Amino acid sequence: QSGHVILSDFATTGDGLIAALQVLAVLVRSGRKASEACRVFAPLPQLLRNVRYSGVSPLVLPDIQSAIALASERLAATGRVLIRASGTEPLIRVMAEGEDFALIQEIVEGLCVTIARAA
């Protein structure tokens, strides 16, 4: 739903113009329409929540790291968990995506409660 495409042959950060040009190059070489070429991407249910903290990021705490590892294991076969500190605000971004939305909700809400207690 959001993110960056990093094409390391051309740049070290996400660059929308480079990504767009590379997509266009693939379309020209393949002779396919974008609607055909992009069918290979099946979006999965995703949930993103923010947890505000003060002081040191709670992500350094062993209990939080263990909770994140357990959540990642639970989704390993059918999805993924991404937990990171915001680069601009004192927030922890808690995101999970996968095939089973009920499981995703359970994991995200559980992580948010755990992180909020530590924050």
Task: Summarize the structure in short.
The protein is an alpha+beta fold and 119 residues long. It contains four helices and three strands.
What integer value in Å does the Rg equal?
18 Å
| N-to-C order of helices and strands | HHEHEEH
**What is the CATH superfamily label of the largest domain?**
Alpha-D-phosphohexomutase, C-terminal domain
Q: If classified by CATH, what would the architecture of the largest domain be?
A: 2-Layer Sandwich
Sheet with the most strands, sense and barrel status: 3 strands, antiparallel
**Terminal CA distance:** 27 Å
SS field, number of helical segments: 4
**Class of the largest domain in CATH?**
Alpha Beta
Give your account of this protein's structure.
The chain has 2 domains: 1-41, no CATH class; 46-118, 2-Layer Sandwich (TATA-Binding Protein), CATH 3.30.310. Helix 3 runs antiparallel to helix 4 (101-118). A hairpin with a 5-residue loop joins strand 2 and strand 3 (91-98). It is globular, with a radius of gyration of 18 Å. The protein has helices at 16-30, 34-37, 62-75, 101-118, and strands at residues 46-52, 79-85, 91-98. Strands 1-3-2 form a 3-stranded antiparallel sheet, covered by helices on one side. With 119 residues, it is an alpha+beta fold. It has 4 helices and 3 strands; from the N terminus they run ααβαββα.
